[in-house]
Amino acid sequence: MYEFVLVSLYFTIIGLFAVSMFCLSKWGGRLQTYLFFNCVAHLVYNCAYLLMMHAKDQQTYVTALKIGYLGRVWVGLAMTLFVAELCGKQIPRFLKIIAGVFDMFVYFFILHLESTKLYYKKMEFVINGDFPTLPHSGGAIYYCFTLLNLFYAYVCMHLIIAAFVREKNKTAKKRNLTVMFALIAMCLSYIIYFFKLIPLARIFDTMIIGYAICTALMLIAIIKYKMLDATSAAKNYAVDELSEGIIVVDADDQVSYYNKPALSMFPQLAQTDKTGVLTQRMLDDFESAIGSGEPIKRGGRIYTPRANPLMENGSRIGTLYSLSDDSEHYRYMEELREQKRIADQANRAKSLFLANMSHEIRTPINAVLGFNEMISRECDKVTASDDPKSPAVAEALGNIETYSENIGGAGNNLLSIINSILDLSKIEAGKMDLSEDTYNLKTLLKDITGMIRFRAEEKGLGFVTDVAESLPSELYGDMVRIRQVIINILTNSVKYTDKGTVWLTVRAKEAEPYEKDRMLTLSFTIRDTGIGIRKEDMQKLFGSFERLELERNSTIEGTGLGLAISRQLVSMMGGKIEAQSEYGKGSTFTIDLPQKVVECEPIGNFSSKAENAGKNEPYKASFTAPDAKVLVVDDTKLNLKLVKALLRDTKLAIDTADSGSEALELCAQNAYDLILMDQRMPNMDGTETMKQIRSQENGQNRETPVICMTADAIIGSRERYLAEGFDDYLSKPIKINELEQTLKEHLNGA
Ligand code: ADP
Fold first, then answer.
1. Is the pTM of this model over 0.85?
2. Cα-to-centroid distance, 455 and ligand 1 (Å)
3. Run of H or E including 729
4. What is the mean pLDDT of the segment spanning 41-48?
5. Are residues 86 and 220 in the same domain?
6. Separation CA 255–CA 279 (nearest Å)
7. Ligand 1 contacts CB of residue 530 (under 6 A)
8. Which atom of ligand 1 is nearest to the CA of 559?
């Protein structure tokens, strides 16, 4: 027996040595460190025990025992740390320190075994057969240390059993099972020795056999199940450190692996799921989330699941589900949505403000321009009449005409500023739409040059036009916007030129012949001999509200919006605008616009000396209709007076109403040929009044055309009012030509 024990001791020492070397060769992680610590502790005890087995007297035996305990006091702690690490549990640092201090405390009493008598109360060296032994009775520290070791054994068993049950990876499961057997062997041998359950335990520390079995099993765990394989440990570590949750199911949809983040997302993974219901529910959640593209919400976090089928030899052996934590992304998106909502709200508030502002300013301008028109008509009449006039009256008349022209100029200027602001806000809101149609190029150029020639001549500037005769006469595009852009640039040239000439050249980039339905690039070049633009100001030129050389240009009216709007409009039309300038000498603007050819017929010789261009002809009504009856509805009495005055020469019979209800009363009594309806009125607005007129019982005006007349010129107003049921739309300030034209159209139809 003695020999058997010696042999097993040698084997254990060799085994422990081998495991220690293995740990050293795979050095790197905490697991290796703790296992190495464990082996060294065992090794020290085993080597000392070998000495004890050869002791001939008590002194030698006790000295060897003290050396052995240098290792043995650490065995329980080292094993617990190792098992905890293997099972992925962290033992708090302070607990490790307390346990270490306690072990050193115990060792102190072992070193002073004989004097303190707190570890062994009594002891006596006896040679039992061949076995040197030291029967003893334990002291207080001995029992404390035994209890602590039993506690360690309990913790280790608990951890390894829990890990074994939880583990889905088959290899890891087997490895944990092996370690569990190793621990059982060690615990059993300890219990057998402590309670002397077999006769051998009286003469020999059976834990040595326990260690031997434990060591052999650890070797199996290390070699067969790659317990210390750095690569697989690293892979596990890396996979656990991912922010993504990883869950692997086999072909039968049984979970075979998951990483730490997955466990924290789905704690049910740790539960034993014999029926498979929990797993199935979880997988169903994944599949429906993947199908619908919706994320999964868990514990305040948002995860996006993805499924990757795992294939081997063409058949599916399982599925890898990955769940990325996209909470930050969704939070960011949520924030963006919120910011967008706030921005939209602010934008709506801005639009509303612009609509109000536009309305509030346009209403008085309407009156100013309208009555100014009346003043000018009255002056024309008096001037044209043959009544003799005194020189003073003639002079006063001339002055009044001039003042009226000035009022008209200033009013129109104010209007164009409001229009610019509205245009810019439309563009910014992305609500500026192009309205493309076939147009006559000559008409467009006449419109433009007529207006500019007048302004240039007023300033004493030359205005030269050069239009290629071969240009097609009819094109397809947004004539209104082209006119706006070209007039804008030409107006600038006139504004910023004190003497010299302004040139307008119109060409096509492509050579003739032009083909119907083909695109051509219409190129306008506007050159002036004006003040020019400094090099450093060139890049500011097209910015909103950007005016250059403010001191120098302070007397020139402008908002700094013209070029910004022009550039936006040109780019909306698919074209480009460029500027070149020599400071002090003049500037050249080029605008290229792609347009579709509708009629190839050449435009021919274009003479800008258009008849009566820009000159104010004395007013003459474009039609008269004494039999037609018109109702004008507006809550501003001044406007009613104005419309009546403006239409006086048409001889229309005009009734007025200053509210929706009065309009309804009049409509019940009279049949009108046409109704002009203001939109914004207190109590009942224009739309409501129009609808009531249309549905009036026995009403005489259910079919009468109703024209919306409003100062509300904001984005899409026209379309909105037509969609509400109005027959036409007129914006204030009323332009007499437009008003007469519209009335003529609808009255003719009546
Ligand atoms: P504004 O209403 O001030 O004319 P624009 O946007 O049309 O606004 O022009 C911006 C600025 O560019 C002007 O204030 C002016 O300083 C400069 N500018 C534009 N056209 C010319 C030009 N033909 N010659 C010199 N300066 C010009």
1. no
2. 16
3. strand 728-731
4. 90
5. yes
6. 7
7. yes
8. 2
